[in-house]
Amino acid sequence: MFGLTALELARIQFGFTISFHIVFPAITIGLASYLAVLEGLWLRTGNPLYRDLYHFWLKIFAVNFGMGVVSGLVMAYQFGTNWSYFSSFAGGITGPLLTYEVLTAFFLEAGFLGVMLFGWNRVGPGLHFFSTLMVALGTLISATWILASNSWMQTPQGHEIIDGRVVPVDWLAVIFNPSFPYRLAHMVVAAYLSTALFVGASGAWHLLKGRDTPAVRKMLSMAMWMLLLVTPVQIAIGDMHGLNTLEHQPAKIAAVEGHWERPEPGAGVPLILFGIPDMAREETRHAVEIPRLGSLILTHSLDGEIPALKDFPPEDRPNSTIVFWTFRVMVGLGFLMLFLGAWSAWLRWRGRLYASRPFLRLAACMGPSGLVAVLAGWYTTEIGRQPWVVYGLMRTGDAVSPHGPLQMGFTLVLFIVVYCIVFGAGTAYMLRQVAQGPGPHAGPPGGPGQAHQPMRPLSAAPDDPGAGPAAPSHARS
Amino acid sequence: MDAGIDLPLVWAVIILFGIMMYVVMDGFDLGIGILFPFLPDRGDRDVMMNSVAPVWDGNETWLVLGGAGLLAAFPVAYAAVLTALYLPLVLMLVGLVFRGVAFEFRFKASDRRRHLWDKAFIGGSLVATFFQGVTLGAYIGGIEMRDGAFAGGPFDWLSPFSLFTGCGLVAAYALLGGTWLIMKTDGELQRRMRGLSRAAAWAVFGAIAVISVWTPLTHPQISERWFSLPNLFWFAPVPVLVVAVLAGLLRAARTESHSGPFLLALALVFLGYTGLGISLWPSIVPPGLSIWQAAAPPQSMGFTLVGALLIIPVILAYTAWSYYVFRGKVRHGEGYH
Asked: What is the ipTM of this complex?
């Protein structure tokens, strides 16, 4: 199909379904913690602003959570349908980790999510706050299990191979494998930043539309504080994650840097800013380099050496053309976030944070940038660990199920069509909710046992966005 | 880890339980989608959907747990079964995704667009159910294995038998949905459901009868399981109970009973499930691979069992509580939305 092999189609399909999926949990993780902060501030200060913001973002959280559940259903089966040899080889380790994730999510959904979404008027403020905290904690625990599983596949340890299958011998070593702490920190902070950018963009958009209310100002302000303080932390974590990758997956770093040959001793490794790595010609064409900067970043010395792509046989090299660029997209967006945060601090100092239209326009445009960076980062790490599915233990080509290209092509097209309809409609609905803007929290939202009693995440959002809490569009008049 | 516990057996019971929870619970809400075409009135449709609105997504989570649990406990079976049944499973998942979202957006859509989501809901429910049934039939039919992996072709799942079980499951879920609605509604809608449920009950009985004859005829080992002595005496109550339950169901659907038909429909589905279990046990990949051969290392099963035993009871308690909260009739004009 389109000249692609079954293996390539299987990889595209997995990449497609998981790319759609990751967007929703990333926002879920960030919003859950943001909601916990908002509710904490409401209880502490009694300022109704925080309560109104809580209820506004709770509706969006609910829709987003529902999307995550539906797209996650497919993921539970993709490992078996597309990667059956991987599943029977490594299922002894990845299976239990995924099961714990499902159990955690299930437990969370069963217990505290209902109270959080529908219990505002039915339980005391303390118990409600506790539920919000537990939901936030639950999303982090879920992320922990998934990233433990992924990190084990990148830097496996704590296992033996018996009769051609992975057998866990030390679960603590399996879970706390070398890349796990860095990956977990990098992803959770990325989820927080993505959410801050999304929230900040919503605030900026409303300000640009002339809806200058205290709640809108507050959400922009909180998002920009988050960006200012956390982007540098994220860059530092990313640096440490990179050094960890250099130690455990040097071929990935060489591909990310488009670094083909070791330099002469003492010359140091340059940093290639721009270039087109060519896998066939084994060189990076049109390279624009800064001497020694590569050494400085990766070894923290001016003449340090890193492994080069030609140190590895061609069949063990990841595709440098792709990861060179996905990595630069991620890092470029990271520095843009740093700039946005710094600009916001400057404007805040000058008292023009809510008035500078160029700044608000940039903030609004950067709403999806966190999610784009998350996807680019995942493409870098996942394509960069090729040709291995379990690093050093199993090749991706040996993991794929024995389906034909026609079959894989058919299901891929099916997934693309269905996902575009389903999640297109869902995302459009969510954005319409955002466009309503925060209003005063009105009336009891119902809950289990009430006449008006939504129980599921999506139904926490009103049926008709137009009939929701009035948008404060005339607040100025 | 080896404390004398038969971990594969424990896990087989957990997974069988999870799948049964899924079948009976998602069964009736898929059934409502299947019955939708018979009731074009918008008010009726609102009531039907509202009767399952608070519970359907929890029902579906059992399917996720089943998939993940199978990977954790029986990775070889997970790999072989999911590969062999690739196309019907993907179609089932796509149907479920569509239905799940249609469920929500139907309530949020404008009057002009609602009929589109109604069609998506009907189509999604039908496709998901039919291919679940096809999956079941193909699974009973057996999966060709070599060297611990699937060794068949992409369309091995497609057979007259699997297409028949697909139709059979549509009837079974329609029966669950119809009897559920007898319990949850009243008046004219309930009267319609009594008629539809009786028709569905006959269809289910026919399907069970055909499958009960078809499988022993084509699978000698299943025939031997049922008809050799002393098994015959142990298993004889199953078909006898099926007939008894069906008779009770048809009577209950005609009389004034409200919850009787649903409970008897559950019993009928449970008996069918038990019959399949008897036929296949202890295979996890029919015909040859047993739960002990497909089992994950004990370290994997034991580690996961701790979490499952802690969390599943809590989930069950919560599920029971939420059904208790939402007990009683659903009427026109009142909803959960």
From this structure: 0.84
